[in-house]
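Researcher: Good morning. I'm working through a list of sequences from a screen, and I'd like to move beyond sequence-only analysis. For each chain I'm collecting a predicted structure so we can compare shapes side by side. This is the next one on the list. No need for commentary yet; just the structure.
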Amino acid sequence: MKYLLLLLLLLLSGSSYCFAQYPGHGYDSLRKTMESTYHIEDSILITTPEGVTLTATLVSTKTLREKVPGILFYTIYTSPERALREAKSMADHGYVGIVANARGKYLSRDSIRPYEKEGEDVNTVIDWISRQPWCNGAVAMYGGSYSGFAQWAATKHLHPALKTIVPYVAAIPGQGLPMENNVFLTANYQWAFYVTNNHFTDNPVNNDNNRWQRMRANWFDSGAAFNKIDSIDGTPSPWWQQWLSHPDYDAYWQAMVPWKQDFAAIHIPVLTIEGYYDDGQISGLEYLYSHYRYNPSAEHYLIIGPYDHFGTQTGGTAILRGYKVDSVALIDTREITFQWLGHILKGAPKPAILKDKINFEVMDANKWRHAPAIEKMHDVTLTFHLDPSYDKGFHRLSRNADVKGSVMQTVNLSDKTQTSSYYPYPLVQSSFPGNDGLAFISDPLQEDIIISGSFTGNLYVKCNKKDFDFHVALYEVRADGSYFQLSHYLARASYITDRTTRKLLTPGSTHRLPFERSRMICKQLSAGSRIMAVIDIDRNPFAQVNYGTGKDVSKETIADAGEPLQLEWLSSSTIDIPVLRP
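Model: Good morning. Structure tokens for this chain:
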């Protein structure tokens, strides 16, 4: 009867409701099995200082007699059944478990504001937890993706009760999605509808893959402006338009999470869990890099291995995009999380895997390595130069610093049959994966090596336009001729030195493009393998097309393509690869 009244309330309020998310029999059955052992409150209303209402679920064991820490899982993906299971797991580990929903979700009647208000709202919930009679004054958080972002949002103005966070694959709005290095992506375009169409999640819309594939293809083939993509879909997307109005990483984005000196004030211990093939890895690791940059004494630990976005949150899968994962890489993320919480909140030992600050699995070596800092993940850096010498379809990736010359590249941006992609799927390919990109390949390795860390570089280029988007993809070319994708980097040239301010190129002049935010990887390469770097202009349905006029890229159309893009990549360009001794 309680949930029939809830449904009636939602219908009478005129709110959009996704019937698939009604608590239903699964929720009722779970709650019934729990009621004899657990104390359950599933309709807690928490009011923020500005009068916004948040909804929370609380679970504790009925045998609890002492004050204990409260553990918070904060989410925008409202599911009453999942909330019960999540809070129950916390209670089973000796805490009071709280799952709080973002504003506008579940019973909240306020507007849904993805990303924008979590710093305020999460701290309101933390404050509420810390003042409950059962709480000993300590609060901790954990969770992945949006929940990981919410933890970092809370640390921007750190509440004294928050003692630790455990973010997995944590998002940074504006630095992973909806844009990466200032290039807006369509890969997750439907997400705004998914989380804002109703008080739960709009699964049918999110799962309508044919619709989103058709939209991307129609937009790309049409040559229309990127900011018209919602018109091509047929449904306005106010949130998408809001985000597109901030192509700089400006104050709008900076207000959502810690930025620069904000990290200096974060003195709580942190355990970050990431994956080499997490699509949002640059976000999750950016928090770690910034934390150490502005607080060198930070107690910040990292676990990273061969996982994708969802696999990181569970501990990996035996097969990742066609690649057989090392057995030692498969972990239990949840168990490690609660071991960490026990260590921080109860004085228990650290998780056994944390033998140092940085803990990383060596792919194809079936072992974990440990280092005191990111820069200690490797022993040496191999510097390669772009050698214009050409043989059998490849230029050379040379260790010789004396190479001279350049490589020309012409790209007709008005030709929609000419596309490029760098996405690592599958990880192993039998044929050349670089489309029409410029491929630079090294001599065969004389011994086994481990590439460990993020590759960086300095590219020197002349071009005939004011801007362009490009990617660099790194591969192992095995002795059998197959290609294993190691890492990649995507960027807009005009933002490469400062993501907050666009600096257009001067056509005809030489420009240095330094880069460092590539995907972290750790993999053993066998003697006889070669290293290949593919450089190409980014043009595909999954991202903006930068036609190079210098105008707002979201407003450029195919009519702005003009003459083909001409690039001259100079041999003074370098690619630096971090190597660890086996």
